[in-house]
Write a structure and sequence with these properties.
Two copies of one chain form a homodimer. By secondary structure, chain A is mainly alpha-helical. Chain A contains six helices and two strands. In chain A, strands 1-2 form a two-stranded antiparallel ribbon. In chain A, a hairpin with a 5-residue loop joins strand 1 and strand 2. In chain A, helix 3 packs across helix 4. Chain A binds a DNA duplex (30 and 30 nucleotides) through helix 2.
DNA sequence: CTACACCTTCCCATCATGGGAAGGTCAAGC
DNA sequence: GCTTGACCTTCCCATGATGGGAAGGTGTAG
């Protein structure tokens, strides 16, 4: 399987596969006689793992830790759970921050006429010196 | 006022002030005879506006649009409100995405013993081929 | 044998921010 | 007047994750 098929099969773009290899997240695959990267099913499986971890918001570095735990058959589940819950806390913190911004702005907008007149509490507030 | 004082007074770092100037978000300030940037109160006011817009999650580019509206005394408040509500929607979308990740992961973690045994539904699920 | 789809590496761009080097400036204290 | 230390200048580099694209090699179908 060439990189294009591996990308297709894993949902990770070819660009990203090369990048993950370059930074050491994944193992360099075999190469064909002409230098093409050659992937087998286990590689694709790993790539899918990476894609799922990324889609759960883990950074590439965190994904590397998860991958190490995944490959270590003797890991303690508490280590995984700890990592996961720490990440959950970070995600929720970021979500809360975004929602606070949204709430503030929505509140400001609710006081704005939204017509042709120039008066606008949104700009007034952002520009106020308080 | 030199850049350090302007940074102090506005809450925008000196590095960022120079950057905002470089990309054209803010006007280049006056310069002293020796080339130091010299800021007056209106400049600081603008910097505070920028800081507040950024803290509400507006990108630098969006902040530029807000700044233009802010300076345009004849703007229509509907334009501001439209921009603001569009941004609110984006913020809420991002927040929801993060919360969905957190919820998924929290759910997986709730099924993980979190002890010394290696069995871990979190890794199982991330690594599953479904 | 040609055409086309694929592969390779390499460089660049994004977005917002910080770090740091090399060198100039200014004010305070001796 | 001279030194010292805190400031300022510009310039380059790094981050994190991703994509774009160029230049050139490969593989296969017709």
């Amino acid at each position: 399987m060439n990189i294009g098929q591996a990308a297709e099969a894993s949902g990770v773009s070819a660009k990203m596969i090369r990048y993950y290899e370059q930074i050491g997240l994944i193992e360099p695959p075999a190469r064909s006689h002409s230098g093409y990267r050659v992937y087998a099913e286990p590689n694709v499986h790993t790539l899918r793992f990476v894609r799922r971890a990324r889609s759960l918001g883990f950074s590439v570095e965190e994904t590397g830790s998860l991958l190490a735990l995944w490959r270590d058959r003797s890991r303690a589940s508490v280590d995984v759970k700890t990592l996961a819950l720490k990440h959950v806390a970070e995600l929720e913190e970021k979500a809360a921050a975004l929602q606070a911004m949204a709430a503030t702005l929505r509140h400001l907008a609710s006081h704005c006429h939204g017509d042709q007149r120039p008066d606008c509490p949104i700009l007034d507030k952002i520009g106020s010196s308080n």
